[in-house]
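U., I forgot to send this yesterday:
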Amino acid sequence: MLYIRLETNADIPNEQKIPLSSSLIHALAKVTGKGENELSVNLADNQRMRMASSDEHVVHVEIKGIEYPKDQARPLAEAIGSVVNEHLAIDEDRIYIAIISSRNSMWRVSGAERKRETPERQ
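Result:
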């Protein structure tokens, strides 16, 4: 299960939350090749956040639960950044994206434990 958490100090109007979540899921599925039913989104708006000593709008996105090669991270970050900019009109230099790769993970979906082990890469 891939998990996207978007935190921002901006207010996201209720009518924009579902379209934003859907766009994030669609962008992540398109770039990674994962099915949209394997993705989960958490939006946290109105957070107390600062970046570079400024209270201007900022977004922090974490993508977890993915084994993703470093050399392919740029297209993923660009896709997510584009969605955030389109929906929230926040400048790219105020969008921080962390792709947290996991080689071995355990998680639970629909009451069943799942374990994914990926061999170490050289």
